[in-house]
Design a protein that fits this description.
The complex is a heterodimer of chains A (about 270) and B (about 230). Chain A contains 7 helices and 4 strands. Chain A has about 270 residues and is mainly α. In chain A, the strands form 2 sheets. In chain A, strands 1-2 form a two-stranded antiparallel ribbon. In chain A, a hairpin with a 5-residue loop joins strand 1 and strand 2. In chain A, helix 4 runs antiparallel to helix 7 and helix 5 packs across helix 7. Classes of the chains: A mainly alpha (about 270), B mainly alpha (about 230).
């Protein structure tokens, strides 16, 4: 069997052995989203939509529209931090044992993507019990993009900052970005101009348009979201490939031009 | 070097951790203070703008401290078992771990409080400072209890987030009536009162002291028990 398939299967099996994780990934969105929406008052609120229009709605519906994205962002971000953290050492050993870095990373990225999809599925399903967006497909797509963006940001933060620092950055980052800056419950009802540089801007506008418009207008925001997703995917691949990779030591051992392989950051020689 | 200092240094080894301990509460208080009053009204609570600002400092300190306490307890299992086996004793190891977490949580709480004082004119700054510190101590205890029971970092940090969010949504100011299981209810009451320019009576301080002492006792017992059972 293809070794990538084997590693992927083992990666999923490793996650399936963690019942508490599954319980939290399902229970936390369920509790958090239903409670937040139910607790919010139906105070009238006018908000600006991406197509330039304005809609008069209420705080409960706005909270219904944005709670899923906030939950998805911080859960997917945490999955990104810890799936990649736990993968780094094991994957380096796989590479030393003969896997190519991309073959070792692909299963981890699949597990990461599956984690984000699970969180999105649960969050959107829970949201559906309390709030119905006008356009379901872009609403789900916006949440999925928010999840993927924050999952990859989590992976990068985990690699750069360690567990504690990455947890702070992901949780407070998601809370400030999608929870406050992009949240139409606050301020004028539209994100400030500088809010467009944050990763939650694109998905946030896509979700808002899908929630309250009859026709989808947020093509620009969708393009920004896809740009973030692809850019971060490249960054994650490059960074993690470097972290788990081994480099070829081109120093000839003998006149025959034999080459040796050594770990790029560690000191573990490749077994022969 | 004492064990406490060594444990604190262990957490700070990752790049930028100390900077984040200071920067995150400052940024959170600065950005969120302006919107928390609107949020409280939307949730059916009743918080004046200044009271909402003061509460943001407590929340920032709480979450930072809870995560810190969790990682102190969970990431040290193997090392602590060896320390206990080598003669340090599970109680002394537990005391050192809790003290190290508290020392770092004080840094985060201090940063959040400094941002609060710079942003808002707090009528009772010492009351607010004590309440923010109490938030941090209670959540260090919450983090240590969770870290003593759950070893995996992902599940543990999600559990800390779960307790924190439950507390935020059911605590004073955000809910019409604070739930009895809100762990930060007492410091939040004092913090909100300080933000509104009111002092808190002695009875409130005694209740706060009792909650903080109980939280610390439970966390010490949980950590020492799990360290002993591991040894």
């Amino acid at each position: 069997m293809n070794r990538v398939v084997v590693a992927t299967r083992l990666g999923f099996r490793e996650q399936a052995r963690r019942p508490l994780l599954l319980l939290l990934l399902v229970g936390l969105p369920f509790f958090f989203i239903t409670r937040a929406i139910a607790q919010t008052e139906q105070l009238p609120r006018s908000i600006g939509l991406p197509g330039g229009g304005e809609v008069l709605t209420n705080m409960r519906d706005i909270h219904g529209a944005d709670m899923a994205a906030i939950t998805v962002a911080f859960l997917a971000g945490l999955i990104g931090v810890f799936v990649m953290q736990s993968a780094r050492q094991a994957d380096r050993r796989l590479v030393v044992a003969g896997f190519r870095p991309r073959e070792a990373l692909a299963p981890r990225l699949l597990v990461l993507g599956a984690g984000a999809v699970l969180v999105v599925a649960v969050s959107v399903a829970v949201t559906g019990t309390s709030f119905a967006p006008n356009l379901w497909a872009p609403f789900i797509l916006g949440n999925l993009l928010a999840g993927l963006i924050y999952a990859m940001l989590g992976a990068l933060a985990g690699a750069a900052l360690g567990k504690l620092g990455a947890t702070y950055v992901v949780l407070f980052g998601a809370m400030l970005d999608l929870g406050i800056v992009q949240n139409p419950m606050f301020g004028t009802g539209e994100p400030p101009a500088w809010g467009a540089v944050l990763p939650g801007y694109g998905p946030g506008r896509v979700i808002l348009d899908a929630a309250f418009s009859d026709h989808f207008h947020a093509w620009g925001a969708l393009a920004i979201s896809i740009g973030w997703t692809l850019g971060l995917a490249v960054a994650v691949l490059v960074l993690l490939e470097r972290l788990v990779g081994v480099e070829l030591d081109r120093t000839p051992r003998s006149r025959g031009g034999d080459t040796r392989t050594r770990a790029s950051r560690g000191r573990t020689p490749r077994p022969r | 070097m004492t064990r406490t200092a060594a444990f604190a240094r262990e957490q700070l080894r990752a790049p930028f951790t100390l900077a984040l301990l200071v920067a995150v509460p400052v940024v959170f208080v600065t950005v969120s203070a302006g919107v928390l009053a609107d949020f409280a009204v939307a949730l059916g609570g009743s918080l004046a703008a200044d009271a909402a600002s003061t509460l943001s400092a407590g929340w920032a300190a709480a979450f930072i401290a809870g995560t810190l306490g969790f990682f102190q307890a969970a990431s040290s299992r193997g090392a602590d078992r060896r320390l206990a086996l080598a003669g340090a004793g599970s109680t002394r190891v537990a005391l050192s771990r809790v003290s190290a977490s508290l020392a770092l949580a004080v840094v985060a709480a201090g940063a959040g409080f400094a941002a609060l004082v710079l942003r808002t004119d707090v009528a009772h700054p010492w009351h607010a400072a004590a309440a923010v510190l109490a938030f941090a101590v209670i959540y260090v205890a919450v983090g240590i209890v969770i870290g003593s029971l759950i070893a995996s970092p992902l599940e543990g940090s999600l559990a800390v987030a779960f307790v924190f969010l439950l507390d935020v949504f059911s605590g004073p100011g955000m809910a019409e009536q604070a739930a009895p299981y809100s762990v930060s209810r007492k410091p939040a009451d004092i913090l909100i009162a300080a933000g509104l320019g009111q002092g808190s009576p002695g009875e409130e301080w005694l209740k706060l002291a009792a909650v903080v002492a109980a939280a610390l006792a439970v966390s010490l017992a949980a950590f020492a028990w799990t360290a002993r059972s591991r040894a």
